[in-house]
Please model this.
Amino acid sequence: MCLSVFLVGLSYILSGNIKPPIASGASWWIWLTGFFGVFYILFMFISVPHIGSENTLLWIFLGQMYFSVIISQTHLWGLAIREFNTLKLLGLVIVTIGGVIMLYAENLEKQATG
Model:
């Protein structure tokens, strides 16, 4: 709360006033962040009790890594195509295998306890 008040005050000091954004002039894609954010939070709440917080965060980060590779290789949003070499592929494979091992260990733990 204190940080929010500080940032509003800083905004006022730097710009001379505080103007809320004009929602009617916003592009359609700006609204997607809120829409996807709701599903992100929803699926976090759904998945954490089932696979644990560490597995949930691991798969979110892994999904972001795979999506970033797709973006950088397909020239989406006008970004420059970046080299994807065998070391980057090896890193993705290692993290993916680590995630599978974590899920397997979680299942073994559940079976052992009942």
